[in-house]
Description:
Layout: E1 2-4, H1 6-20, E2 24-28, H2 44-48, E3 53-55, H3 60-72, E4 76-80, H4 91-98, H5 101-104, E5 114-119, H6 134-138, E6 144-146, H7 151-163, E7 168-173, E8 182-184, E9 197-200, E10 205-209, H8 213-228, E11 232-236, E12 239-241, H9 245-255, E13 258-261, H10 270-282, E14 291-293, H11 306-309, H12 313-324
Parallel strand pairs: 2-3, 2-4, 4-5, 5-7, 6-7, 10-11, 10-13, 13-14
Antiparallel strand pairs: 1-8, 6-12, 9-11
Helix pairs in contact: 1-7, 3-4, 8-12, 9-10
Amino acid sequence: MALMNMAKSxxxxxxxxxxxxxxxxxxxEDVGPDEGVFRITExxxxxxxxxxxxxxxxxxxxxxxxxxxxxxxxIKPVCEIQFSGFDYYSFHQLECHASRFRNRTRGRLSxxxxxxxxxxxxxxxxxxxxxSREAIYAHTPGLKVVIPSGxxxxxxxxxSAIQDPDPVIYYEPKAIYRLFKEEVPDKMETLPIGQSQxxxxxxxxxxxxxxxxxxxxxxxxxxxEDEDGVKAEVIDLLTIAPLDATLIxxxxxxxxxxxxxxxxxxxxGLGAEVVARVNEAxxxxxxxxxxxxxxxDTPIPYFSKxxxxxxxxxxxxxxxxxxxxx
Length: 326
């Protein structure tokens, strides 16, 4: 196994997918000789040339619209949008076309494209560069949405996304691109889209998170065990559409309490959907109301104030203690 960060593991997945299948192409702004704003496409242009690594104009709608046409005709495009705050310009193409073609053609055509985008805060970026709006895509029928939390699952999920016959939104938490390293197997692996994972087993409370927020959640779980003797079970969602409600329900039936953590805005965020699913299937197992630790219903602030917006271990720990003492 090789030790690598998330940026390198995503780059490795792109190399592997393009070597494995000549129909896989990469397209986006500055993905060619400049190798992408975060260097995720490093070395791809030198290896595969400009017929498979395509620099595009500064036009997100054009990037995704072109990819839809290519996908319908048998190519497997992987689009890079430089920052998720700009992918709204492509939303018309995704919602009106990519997400609907399977239904529109009664299953005759599908759109096997992947839209990659760095998302979320944590790097003190400018306006439109730190948004966390994954709930918009999860709310759109016909789109699958995956969000890795570390190098190993980032590589595996990207392979699964590229191989999927339907459009996949692949959101990359840029705050952890190079934050830590992890062992990644030499042999290519995949993870099923639509399945979550228990990353820490426990019996007293269920903590649910994904992406960069998983680190704060795990830190809070360790603090809870060290300081309070409480064993928290931590679930990494990995896929937010379709949501793996089964694993969540099973865990909450065991623990009776839950806290959900994500950096997206609170209103209509993923936490609200998880609460609704639990209420429908496991309400009588709850011993306390479910708490949410989220971003706020405001634009994410700039620079130093950003840290007050993003969930941190202390906020998660406080929510856990309130839930446990109810």
